[in-house]
């Protein structure tokens, strides 16, 4: 599970209009099996938060299995 928590406080800036609210927020996401919790990075640039989570060892490619039809 990955949980991101943040809080936006009101700055002392004169604005005529504001579409983004203030206060606390929290979002939780279930991560896929095999996620490497020791391989997590987060970057906040130009108002965008990017979180990257490693998936551990690479999984083998999908294997095609032919289905036999009896009859």
Please provide a written account of the structure.
The protein has 71 residues and is mainly beta. It has strands at 2-8, 23-29, 36-45, 48-54. The strands form two sheets. The chain has a two-stranded antiparallel sheet. A two-stranded antiparallel sheet has the order 3-4. Strand 3 and strand 4 form a beta hairpin. The protein has a domain at 2-9 and 22-54. It is elongated. The protein contains no helices and four strands.
Fold blueprint:
Blueprint lengths: L1 E7 L14 E7 L6 E10 L2 E7 L17
Antiparallel strand pairs: 1-2, 3-4
Number of strands: 4
- The assigned structural class equals mainly beta
Distance between the termini: 48 Å
Give the helices and strands as they follow along the chain.
EEEE
Shape type:
elongated
Helical stretch tally? 0
Helical percentage: under 10%
Major sheet size, sense and barrel closure: 2 strands, antiparallel
Task: Report low-confidence residues grouped into runs of 5 or more.
Answer: none
Briefly summarize what is shown.
The protein is mainly beta. It has no helices and four strands.
Labels describing this entry:
71 residues, 44% strand, mainly beta, two-stranded antiparallel sheet
